[in-house]
Amino acid sequence: MAANVPDPSRILSIQSHVVSGYVGNRSATFPLQLLGWDVDVTNTVQFSNHTGYGRWGGLRFDAEHLQDIFDGLDKNGLLRYSRMLTGYMPSAAVVQTVLSLVKKLRAREGGEEGGLIYLLDPVMGDMGRGMYVAPEVLPIYQEMLQYSTIITPNQFEAQALTGIDIVDLVSLKKVILTLHKKHKVPHVIITSVELPDADLAAIGAQKTLADGRPAMLQVGSSCEIHLEAGERQEPNLEEENLQVWSIQFPEVQGYFSGVGDMFAALTLGRFHREGQMASQANGATKDLTPIAKASELAIASLQGILSNTCKVIDQIEKDLPDSTGKDEAQEKVDRMRRRELRVVQSKKEIESPMIVYRARWIGS
After folding, report:
1. Which domain holds residue 12?
2. Where is the signal peptide (predicted)?
3. pLDDT tens per residue across span 193-214
């Protein structure tokens, strides 16, 4: 059996796939390739289009199918990934199979933790919508946390992983501390958080931006995790020592699929753990962590992609004929098709994003 030596340019992306549109692997692959990565993809489902259309065809793949793929790669020495990304997985058995692969890669020779940087996007549900995967996946995701390098849950998923509801700034910090301390995650990004007005004001944020657009809030934190005999140790970290940053950016109105998948991919592709970046916060220069810089760049690219997408939507909708009498299901399909991300048309925004919305330290 050939050796699976880590290749510093190669990423394995394990998530959903659609024939038409941009979610899952379709959302992640082209942006990562533009950033210079060789991307190998494993599809957990193959659908005609995303499920927001209301009708679709295709298959969810089972754990045996994925294991057969991983075994084939292993036999040929092709598990050479220095980075790995996981998104939507359709069953607890699939999540368990992927966890076994992560453990195998972590056990390789080739540097600390097998030379693997692993971004786990624990796709389970949303605020207001609840859990849309089988509840049996949760404990496996919780086990998976200790093998991840970066995690990108939304608020609902962060709450589910920790068992703590985020209702204010204090509980938000408890969630982040739990992910670092109990679950030994080095880099945490909670991709969307809602806080009371008073807490937003306390961190220099607000519900709307200066131009009146609704604002989204993302928060993140990093923590040094030490190894002993190859195992992660619980960090000596308390809540008052947390270094939490936040980014506020416009919420683009309307339903867009694949945005979270692309954010995770861009963050992994942009992340470089060596070195710090200088950032201006309240007039004082303070080092910005590599994961915060990666998040800034990912958000900047996404804002550009969404802007390009909205321009196309506006033009299409301006020229639409009267839809009176159109079948409701077909009208939904047409609406979803118009709102597919313009990814290829946003090559410039992916490669050279303009950073407008910057990370700032909470408490600085």
Report:
1. 7-293
2. none
3. 999 999 999 999 999 988 888 9
